[in-house]
Amino acid sequence: MRIKKFIFPLILLVIFIGVIALGMALGYWQTKGGRGRGPQSEILAPTTVSMEIQTISDFDFDREQSVWLL
Amino acid sequence: MATVTNEQSKAHKSPRRAIFTKVVFLRRIIQAVFVGFAIFVGSRHLWAGSGPTGAASFDAYCPFGGIETLWQFITGGVFLRKLNYSNLVVLAATLATALVMGRAFCGWICPLGSVQEWLARLAQRLTGSRKAGKNGIPWLPVKLPPAVDRTLRYLKYGVLGWVLWSSVSAVVPPLEPFCPYKILFHFELESALAWSVFIVMIAGSLLVERFWCRYLCPLGAVLSIFNKISPLRVHTDKIVCTDCGLCGSTCGMGIEDRPENIRSLECIRCLDCLDTCKRPEAIELKLG
Prior knowledge:
The structure holds 2 protein chains of 2 kinds. Chain A contains 3 helices and 3 strands, in the order βαααββ. By secondary structure, chain A is mainly α. Chain A has a domain at about 45-70. Chain A has a two-stranded antiparallel ribbon. Chain A is rod-shaped and about 85 Å long. The termini of chain A are far apart. By secondary structure, chain B is mainly α. Chain B has one domain (about 20-230). Chain B has a two-stranded antiparallel ribbon with strand order 1-2. The radius of gyration of chain B is 21 Å and the shape is globular. Chain B starts with 5 loop residues before the first helix and ends with a strand.
């Protein structure tokens, strides 16, 4: 069946926007909250440099004498 | 009084008016709308910031993000970092269009594809007839030797394979650090890697039209498979077609022998071939 070329973008937009609208209507349009929910995120999630320094610093600080051991 | 024939009236039609009879005019508008939306999403995230009170991540609107997180969603019901249900919804919409009309998403909707196309047009204009000497043929974008071009096109399937393999054990989307789509519209060029990707992307698009789509885009690799099964496709009437080669020479994806390769994996359904064909009945859109 022959289709007019100006109908083509109309079909495309109807399908594309229609499926997104359907997803929204069904409550699946969630754009936030996925952060750090990977199964291995607790093990492999990268830590910042400042967090690592803080961890090392906690070990090397003598709390009784209030001096750094490094 | 002399009567004006149809041919004469067509010949006198101004180029400005003739553009409205071409589907490319409509395509440019739709592309501009989606590029505008991508800029809006990217800049909103920049202004409002991230986190629970900020705007949604740019990644949350990417259809390829849906592919990257699909394995972990199916096996564990979780998402990779920055991704969510919205990625699956956009992926479903993209696959639905692909089921009916192949890689039309690449030719009409993808903002990255549009920017590449515009950069190629810019390069064409800058190196066009006035600057190219006697023959007037623009020297940019270049056409790579067919053998090299064909080989490079397989790279995108390799990129897709690598992303799928990495996504099994990934925490963040594997393509994210290198993704030109995000780098271009997220406006955060903070690392040397981001700058490198940005420069390669701009230079590549000026040199070869739709450089990323042709050689590297993993989403294009997924959608290309649908070109073989989608019912709505471009059809060539080989009896009417004179094999003039005009459609092939203007094809943005560089598909050679356009009439023979009408079901090519590379066709992005931009319909430029319908616009450029001098015999409109030779190339038509057909369903089934």
